[in-house]
Structure formats: structure tokens, C-alpha cells
Hints:
By secondary structure, the chain is α+β, with helices and mostly antiparallel strands. The protein starts with a helix and ends with a helix. It has helices at 3-11, 39-47, 104-125, 137-148, 159-185, 189-223; strands spanning 20-24, 50-54, 61-75, 81-94. The longest helix has 35 residues, at 189-223. It has two domains: 3-94, no CATH class; 104-223, Methane Monooxygenase Hydroxylase, Chain G, domain 1 (Up-down Bundle), CATH 1.20.58. Strand 2 and strand 3 (61-75) form a beta hairpin.
Amino acid sequence: xxxxxxxxxxxxxxxxxxxxxxxxxxxxxxxxxxxxxxxxxxxxxxxxxxxxxxxxxxxxxxxxxxxxxxxxxxxxxxxxxxxxxxxxxxxxxxxxxxxxxxxxxxxxxxxxxxxxxxxxxxxxxxxxxxxxxxxxxxxxxxxxxxxxxxxxxxxxxxxxxxxxxxxxxxxxxxxxxxxxxxxxxxxxxxxxxxxxxxxxxxxxxxxxxxxxxxxxxxxxxxxx
Length: 224
């Protein structure tokens, strides 16, 4: 069963309107949207992602969905296990978790600033200097981006949401490459800490942008 079919089944029938659909990407220290002290919170945090559907006729009625992935024992060409199964666990939530999700326009602007911040962070710690030999860091970023373009997006997806997803993937790839270069390029623990502190807020920007974009895509797919 597809995610959209799962959402329709979990949400049930509504007399008027459409349900609110929000994607959450929780990490330790940032559990926005999760109901505290519930099994849903624990499982969503362990999975790192979940979907919350709120009934349009009764905002106090919500369900949460947490994915579970099954992988083949054999690896693909890149040495990564191949995804072979996906299942969803549905949770009844005690009222809709209240949280303000970032708007797409705000997310897009924050991502533009994040790209500049990532570049500034690398300059601050001196990565790419004579002491660090990196053949093609931009190529490393592009290689990571290619892997994100394999995912299919349900139609019709808002163009701005797709743009935000692409920009978020770009920033995330920069963070990943930068973190790797930091480990080999910093000369002291203090430099490494400066780099880590500079990159950490960017990860939060990426999560917020992805939550906004994915929620908008699922909301649009519901109406299709």
C-alpha cells in the first residue's frame, strides 16, 4: 500500500474539508510535532521520520504513522543494502500536537542563507588550504545530490516544494562533505569544534525545509 493510500485509510472519512498532513523529522533535542511521553514519540525519534494526520472535522483527533524499512542482505554497486520492503505503523494520538511548521517561502530563504553560512564555515577553519588535499569537493557534493534524485515524487507536486527539496538536498550534501573534510582538515580540537558549531544550525534548517516541502507535497497529492 502506498503512503497516500495509508494516509487516506488512517485519516478516515471527513464530512468537510481535508485533513492536515505534516511530516516530522525528529532528532534528539528537536522533537517538534511529537506528543511527549507516547510510544509514537519514541518510535518516531528512533526512525527519524513520521507523518501526522489531523482530522479536519475534529482537530483533537490525530493519527501518527512511522515507517519501518526492510533491506535485502545483498548490497548494490555502491555497497549499500537494497530497500525491499516498507511498512507503516499507525498510532492514535491524544490530540493534535501543536507546532508551527516553516512556510515554503521562509524555508527557501533560510536555505539560501544556509549555503552562504556553509561556505563561510569552511573559510573560517581554513579547509581547502595547502594542508588539505581534496581533489574535487564540488564533485563529492554533486555525487551525493545524484543519489537524492532517484526518489519519485507524487504528482502534482508544487514547484516551490520541489525547489525547496532540491535546495535542502544541496545544503545537506555540503554539510556531509564539509563534516568529512573537517575531520581531515582541522589542526586542533578547537578548530574542529568551531566547524561543528558552524554546521549544526544548518542541519536544523535542512530538516525544517524538508518538513515544509514534504508536507506540502503530500497535501497536494491528497487533493489530486
